[in-house]
Structure formats: C-alpha cells, structure tokens
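Exercise: predict the fold of this chain.
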Amino acid sequence: MARLLTFLLAAIVSHAGVTLSVPARLRSTTAGSAGVRIISQQWDPAKTALILCDFWDSHHCANAVKRVSELAPCIAAVVGQAREMSLLIVHAPSDCMEAYAAHPARQRAIEGPFAPNLPKGIDAWMNWISTEEEKCGYPIDAFDGGCDDNPKEAAAWKTELKKQGRHTGHPWLGQHSAVKIDAERDIISDKGTEIWNVLHARGINDVLLAGVHANMCVCGRPFGLMQLAKNGKNVVLLRDLTDTMYNPAMRPQVGHTAGTELIVSHIERFIAPTVLSTEVFGGETPLFTHERRRHLAIMIGEDEYRTEETLAAFMDSMVKDFRVTYILPTKEKPADFFNMTALATADLLLVSVRHRLLPRAQLAALRKFAERGGANAGIRTASHAFAHRDGQQIPPVPGCG
C-alpha cells in the first residue's frame, strides 16, 4: 500500500506542472579553448530516464570497489528521489542479466514494444564519437587498465575474490546492494536495443546517466553517453556520481580524482553536458576519502573579458593541485548563479564578476563564506563585482530579509 501511495503521489506531482531543473554544463570545442558555460534546461520528470551504468557489486580493482562504496549512499538517495518524481529508473549492470532473468523489471525491458526508429548499431560499443575527439585523444592514459591498486593490494584482493567464489577478472554478479530496484516500475537491461525500445515507448528524450567508469563504460556502452548523444537523445552525465579507471602513475600523473575531472571536461567538450546531482536533486556531493586537494570555487559573471574561457583553460593545467567548482549564471539570467552551495566547503573563492546584482539569498551565501574565514581573491573587474549601477536595486527573494 505504501508503495502504491508513493507511486500515485509521484504521478500527481508529475502532472502538476512540476519540472526538473537541469543546469547543464558544457565546454568549448574550439581548438585551444576550454570555455565553460551553463545552459539551464527544464525537463518533464515523467518524460525523463535515469540510467545507472555498471554500478556493480564488485570489481577486479580493490580501490575501484572502495570508491563505488563511497558513491553508493548518494547514488541510492538520488535513485530513490528520482523514482518518487516519476523518472524512469534503468538499472544497467552489464554482464549480469542472468541474475535478474526472472525479475519483473528485467521482463519489462525484454517485453517492451519494438521501436520503429531503432538506430543502426545501437547494440555496439563506441570508442570515438568524432574526428575532433580522435585527434585530441583522451586526457588520461588508461592503457594499463586503469587499476590503481599497488601490488600488495592487488594480491590481497585477488585472494579475497577467490574466497568469495568470484572470477578474479570479472567478479561482478549484480548491481550494488545499496541501490534498490522497484519491481513494479524500474527497468533492468544492459542492451542498447532494449533500452532504446523502452525510451521510445515512453516518449523519453531526456536522460540522466550516472555510474562507472566514466572513461570506459559510461562513454562507450551501447546505452552510454556516446550512443545516446549520437542518436539524438538529450543525455546529461551526473558528474559527481561517477568515477574513472585511472592509475595516477600513468599520464598525466595526477591524482585519481583529478583524472576523473579531466575526463569530465573531455566529455563536456566532445560528447555530452554534465550536471551535479545536487543541482538537480539536492543533497550533498560525495567526496572521496583520498581527496586531498584544496577546494577552489571560481565565480564568473562578466561579458567583456572572456574569463569563462581563460580561467577554465588555466585551471585545467592546475587540476593536480585544486579541486575546482565553477559558480556560473546562464546567458538568459546573468545575475542568477548556479552552484552557490560550493561556498559551504570552498577554501578559496576566486571572483571574476562585473556588475551582477545577485538575489539576496546568494549574497547571503557570499557573506556567510566570508564570515567563516573563507579566503577570496578578485581579478579584473571584481572591485565592482556586485556594485549597483545607478537606479538598480537588488530584487527581493521570498523568505529572505
């Protein structure tokens, strides 16, 4: 009964004009540029899918397993909230379909109506999406397989997998137990054809994708970013709910999380936009325990000096030293900034803003950052970042003084 009530409430919300706000982040594809921008989209939750890619219960890399376990609570919370909002949840633990052969969510995927617009090659892996991407190449080298276990860790984990009766090369048997599957509403599939059929049958064009690993399965699977983007779906990666297979001993010899950020930047340039799960669903961004870099928030809002390009390009070269969060507006609403919640954990705020009259709530977040002792630095026009022009007033925000 409780499950039925949840479903009915979600259906009521979806028909009440509620939309899903998705501030999608993109990078410039111009050679030599890394410009970053936000395009805010409004989606119908009932016409949106969340695909969970290869969020397996195990892996041949011990450190990969640890990071998935750290992501698990946030992914589980997002999946639960997305389901309540009437998003279609697609569980895609590849190579594990036998474990779900009798599951209603698996049968639902198999029995779905056949789409008349089935793209050619939809069941194939994709390695490259464009000649420009092929020319640039991936920004990290995972030729060694990307596992960052040291020899002692690798030997111990192999022994543990054998004790568990798992294959040491492909030990995954199903999806991580932290993420629940709703037998009445969800879908289970790792097939491009099946997932495309389900999306078509439900009129779904907008897709969020989370899971692992960003430089491999998330991009290349038949249901991954490349295939969906190539075939016209409006797909966006939840960039805080993913990880990479990357060994910091390999090029460009940066920390593991920094390697993930470089892949995210690459995805934003050549494949699909990304968004923080917190910007869509609220909650907190997961932070891996091995993260040791300082958190730098960069607030950009000006039309004269193109700092959204120059600062982004510079910070890509500093990824080894800083965890960077961009606080940006859209072109349509230049004084309304996304990602202000980053100020709660930022060590330093770098400001490149000119004459932006922020809503009171956002000004309050800036003041709170300063009051707790957050360091700040301004460049170029930051001396009048939030200064009033003659006759301008800060617009009131409901609930704020």
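Check your answer against the key: The first strand starts at residue 20 and ends at 27.
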